Amino acid sequence: MCPVRNSNGQLDHFELYASNLTRTIDTSQQHDALIRAMQRSMAVIEFDMQGHVLHANELFLRGMGYQLSDIQGKHHRLFCPPEINNSP
């Protein structure tokens, strides 16, 4: 709400500005549902931009034989064989 004053400085009226966020909220909820479905059905691991492990879901951890504490904060090269890690 924004007050609008007349030329004498007296309050004349209020103006109200609004946005309909229904579509934005619906899209966000759809994206959240998709991510939750992926987390339930797929092995998922998340990295930061430098390649360090941020999080891995239970499907990934069980499939790879790790605990989250084993890999969290470590670089993704952990999952590569030495010949790839040591290559140019």
Poorly predicted parts: none
Judged by helices, strands and strand pairing, the structural class is alpha+beta
Rg from Cα: 25 Å
Strand content: 15-25%
Sheet bearing the most strands, described? 2 strands, antiparallel
Estimate the helix proportion, in percent: 25-40%
Shape, per Cα inertia axes: elongated
Strand order of the largest sheet: 1-2
Mean pLDDT: 93
Gist of the model:
This protein is of the alpha+beta class. The chain is built from 4 helices and 4 strands, in the order ββαββααα.
Per-chain topology:
Layout: E1 2-5, E2 11-15, H1 22-41, E3 45-47, E4 53-56, H2 58-64, H3 68-71, H4 82-85
Antiparallel strand pairs: 1-2, 3-4
Describe the structure.
With 88 residues, the chain is of the alpha+beta class. It has one domain (2-85). Helices cover 40% and strands 18% of the residues. The chain is built from 4 helices and 4 strands; from the N terminus they run E-E-H-E-E-H-H-H. The strands form 2 sheets. It has a two-stranded antiparallel sheet with strand order 1-2. It has a two-stranded antiparallel ribbon with strand order 3-4. Strand 3 (45-47) and strand 4 form a beta hairpin. The model has no long low-confidence stretch (mean pLDDT 93).
